[in-house]
C-alpha cells in the first residue's frame, strides 16, 4: 500500500491510518508530485464544510429517495415509474426489491452512500485536526466553527440513516477503524434507535459548541443561505432538527406516543424563529423533489394525493373515492372545498385552485396506466421550477409549531387554548377553515394537526410525509376507513371542517415498508443474504430470506463506497472524498 498517494486519487487508506500527523501544503510548482496532501483550508472546506451538501444531494437534491417516500405516504400520486414511484405506491403494496440490479435501487443506495461519503470525509477531517501537533491547524482555520459544523452534519447524516433504515453504522472520529497493525476493526450494524440516539447527541453537541460562538458560518456550506449565519443561528437550527425528527423516527403509533415530547417542546422553543431556507443556485444546490411537485408548465408530473388534500372534502367525492378499489379510483372535483389553500372559495365548481394548489384536470395518458388519479397539484412554490434558483423551503416554523401542539396535546391529555391557537394560525389565517376551540375533542384536534402539517409542508419536506405518517395512524386497508376507528355511532373515524365524521386514512397503507434494509449492494459487500420489507404482514418483519440481527460484527468495507456511476459523477464535479476504497 502506498500511503503517499495523493488524496485526489482517493488513497486506499485514511491520512491518520497511514501514520501522518500533519498535512503537507500543496506544492503548486510541481503538480506532478505524488506526495501532495490537502491544506488545512482544503480540509476545512472540502472535507468538513462540504459534508452537508453531500448529504443534501443524497436526500433532497435528487428525486431519490424523496419522490418514492412521498408516494408511499400518499402525499403525491404519479403515473410514471420514475424514482420507483409506481412500484413503491402500488396497491396492494409489495416488498421493496432490494437487489443490487434493481432499476430503482438508488432509492436506498443514494441516501446510504452519499451520507457515508460525507461521514467518512468528516471522520478524516476531524481526525487530522485533532492529531495536529504543530499548532498550525487552528491558526489557519477556525477549529471551533469546524467542530460545531461537523457535529451538525454528523447529526443530520445519522438522523437520515435512522429514519430510513432498520440499521446502520455509526461513524464518527472517536471510532478506531484500524488496530496498531493496520488491520481493520469490525464495526457493528446498530438498530435505528441507537443510530438516532447518536444523531441526537451530535445535534445536541453542535448546539452546545455553537452557542455563544463569535464566528459565522462559512459562505457556501449551506449554499448562499449560510452567508451571515451566526454560531447562535446554527445552534438554533440544530435544535430545530431535533424537534422535527424526534416524532418522525417512530415506526408505529405506539412508538410515536412514547416519543420524548418534552424535548420536542424545548427544542422548538429554543430553535429557529423564522423559516429556514436553502438557496438554490441551479447547479450544486437544487431540489428535484421541489421541482417535480411544483412544476406548472406540464400536466405529467406529480399530483397531490386525495389522502393529503381530501380530508375536509364536502362534495362526497372523497367518501366514494376511498371506498373504491385503488385501481378504479378516478379523479374528482372537490366542489365547495372549504380550505381556500386548495380551492378558490369564489368558485363553486372546485376547478379553480386556491393559494397553495392548482386544478390541473386529467393527467396525460389518462386511461393508459391504471393508477389512482388526482385533479390537483401543488402551486405554492411554482416559481422554483422555472430557474431552480431562490430560497428552497427546508425547515418551516409552522411545521415545528404543529409538532409542539402535538406534544402539548399528548403530554397534557387535554385540548388547551395554546394548542388550538397554534393550529388556527394556518387553519384559519391561511385556510379560512372554522377555528378550533378547547371544546373540540382530542381526536378532532389531533386530526387537525395532522392535516395542517401535511398541507403546510406539502412537496417541500423530503421524507417528512412518510416518516410522520407511519406514526400518525394504524396501517390502513386499501379500501375503507381506518380499522377499528369509529365514533360513538359506529361511523368510521375522522371529521370534516364542521365536526361531522368522514372516512379517511391517517396511517400508511397496509403492506407499506416501515423502513428499509441496508442496500442490497451493501449486504453483498458484507457477505450477507439480501433481505427486505414490505407486503401485508411484513411491513417491519424480516422476510424469510435473511435476518437483520443487530450487534453483529461486520467488515469495515461497509464504510467504503463501491465505484459506480454516482461516485464517478461526484469526482467529475470536484467533490473531495477520502477514506474511500474501491473493491477490485
Query: Which fold name corresponds to the CATH topology of the domain at 7-290 and 513-572?
Result: Serine Threonine Protein Phosphatase 5, Tetratricopeptide repeat
Residue runs with pLDDT of under 50 for 5 or more positions: 1-36, 482-503, 542-584
Question: On the 0-100 scale, what is the average pLDDT?
Answer: 82
**CATH-derived architecture of the domain at 7-290 and 513-572:** Alpha Horseshoe
Helix content: 25-40%
Round the Cα radius of gyration to an integer and report it.
Answer: 24 Å
In quaternary terms, these chains amount to: single chain
Q: Which percent band covers the strand fraction?
A: 5-15%
Q: Quote the distance from N terminus to C terminus.
A: 14 Å
What shape does the CA trace take?
A: globular
- Kindly report the spatial arrangement of strands forming the biggest sheet: 1-7
What is the β-strand count? 11
3D structure, described in words:
Mean pLDDT is 82; it is low at 1-36, 482-503 and 542-584. The two termini are 14 Å apart. The protein is mainly alpha-helical and 584 residues long. A two-stranded antiparallel ribbon has the order 1-7. Strands 2-4 form a two-stranded antiparallel ribbon. Strands 3-11 form a two-stranded antiparallel sheet. It has 21 helices and eleven strands.
Amino acid at each position: 500500500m502506498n500511503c503517499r498517494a495523493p488524496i485526489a486519487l482517493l488513497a486506499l487508506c485514511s491520512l491518520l491510518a497511514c501514520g501522518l500527523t500533519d498535512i503537507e501544503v500543496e506544492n503548486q510548482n510541481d503538480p506532478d508530485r505524488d506526495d501532495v496532501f490537502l491544506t488545512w483550508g482544503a480540509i476545512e472546506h472540502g472535507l468538513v464544510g462540504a459534508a452537508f451538501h453531500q448529504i443534501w444531494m443524497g436526500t433532497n437534491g435528487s428525486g431519490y429517495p424523496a419522490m418514492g417516500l412521498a408516494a408511499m405516504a400518499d402525499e403525491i400520486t404519479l403515473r410514471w415509474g420514475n424514482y420507483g414511484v409506481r412500484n413503491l405506491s402500488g396497491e396492494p403494496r409489495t416488498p421493496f426489491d432490494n437487489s443490487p440490479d434493481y432499476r430503482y435501487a438508488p432509492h436506498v443506495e443514494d441516501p446510504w452512500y452519499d451520507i457515508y461519503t460525507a461521514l467518512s470525509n468528516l471522520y478524516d477531517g476531524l481526525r487530522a485536526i485533532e492529531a495536529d501537533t504543530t499548532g498550525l491547524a487552528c491558526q489557519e482555520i477556525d477549529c471551533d466553527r469546524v467542530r460545531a459544523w461537523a457535529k451538525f452534519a454528523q447529526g443530520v447524516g445519522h438522523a437520515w440513516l435512522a429514519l430510513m433504515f432498520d440499521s446502520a453504522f455509526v461513524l464518527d472520529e472517536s471510532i478506531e477503524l484500524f488496530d496498531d497493525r493496520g488491520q481493520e476493526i469490525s464495526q457493528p450494524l446498530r438498530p435505528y434507535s441507537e443510530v438516532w440516539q447518536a444523531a441526537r447527541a451530535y445535534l445536541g453537541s453542535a448546539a452546545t459548541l455553537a452557542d455563544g460562538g463569535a464566528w459565522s458560518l462559512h459562505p457556501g456550506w449551506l449554499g448562499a443561505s449560510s452567508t451571515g449565519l451566526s454560531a447562535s443561528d446554527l445552534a438554533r437550527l440544530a435544535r430545530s432538527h431535533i424537534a422535527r425528527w424526534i416524532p418522525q423516527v417512530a415506526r408505529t403509533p405506539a412508538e410515536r406516543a412514547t416519543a420524548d415530547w418534552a424535548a420536542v417542546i424545548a427544542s422548538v422553543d429554543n430553535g429557529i424563529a423564522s423559516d429556514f431556507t436553502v438557496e438554490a443556485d441551479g447547479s450544486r444546490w437544487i431540489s428535484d423533489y421541489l421541482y417535480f411537485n411544483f412544476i406548472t408548465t406540464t400536466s405529467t408530473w406529480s399530483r397531490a394525493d386525495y389522502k393529503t388534500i381530501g380530508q375536509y372534502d364536502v362534495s362526497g367525492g372523497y367518501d366514494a373515492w376511498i371506498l373504491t378499489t385503488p385501481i378504479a379510483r378516478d379523479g374528482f372535483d372537490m366542489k365547495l372545498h372549504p380550505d381556500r389553500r386548495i380551492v378558490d372559495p369564489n368558485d363553486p365548481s372546485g376547478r379553480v385552485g386556491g393559494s397553495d394548489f392548482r386544478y390541473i384536470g386529467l393527467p396525460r395518458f389518462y386511461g393508459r396506466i391504471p393508477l389512482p388519479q388526482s385533479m390537483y397539484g401543488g402551486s405554492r412554490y411554482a416559481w422554483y421550477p422555472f430557474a431552480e434558483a431562490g430560497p428552497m423551503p427546508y425547515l418551516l416554523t409552522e411545521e415545528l409549531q404543529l409538532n409542539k401542539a402535538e406534544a402539548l396535546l399528548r403530554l397534557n391529555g387535554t385540548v388547551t387554548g395554546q394548542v388550538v391557537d397554534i393550529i388556527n394560525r394556518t387553519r384559519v389565517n391561511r385556510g379560512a377553515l372554522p377555528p378550533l376551540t378547547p371544546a373540540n375533542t382530542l381526536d378532532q384536534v389531533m386530526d387537525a394537526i395532522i392535516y395542517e402539517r401535511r398541507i403546510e409542508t406539502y412537496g417541500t419536506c423530503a421524507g417528512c410525509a412518510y416518516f410522520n405518517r407511519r406514526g400518525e395512524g394504524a396501517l390502513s386497508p386499501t379500501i375503507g376507513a381506518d380499522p377499528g376507528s369509529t365514533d360513538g355511532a359506529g361511523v368510521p373515524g375522522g371529521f370534516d371542517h364542521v365536526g361531522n365524521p368522514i372516512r379517511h386514512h391517517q396511517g400508511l397503507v397496509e403492506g407499506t415498508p416501515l423502513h428499509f434494509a441496508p442496500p442490497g449492494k451493501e449486504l453483498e459487500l458484507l457477505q450477507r443474504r439480501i433481505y427486505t420489507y414490505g407486503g401485508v404482514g411484513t411491513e417491519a418483519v424480516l422476510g424469510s430470506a435473511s435476518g437483520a440481527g443487530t450487534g453483529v460484527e461486520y467488515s469495515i468495507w461497509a464504510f467504503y463506497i463501491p465505484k459506480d456511476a454516482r461516485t464517478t459523477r461526484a469526482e467529475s464535479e470536484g467533490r473531495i472524498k477520502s477514506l474511500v476504497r474501491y473493491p477490485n
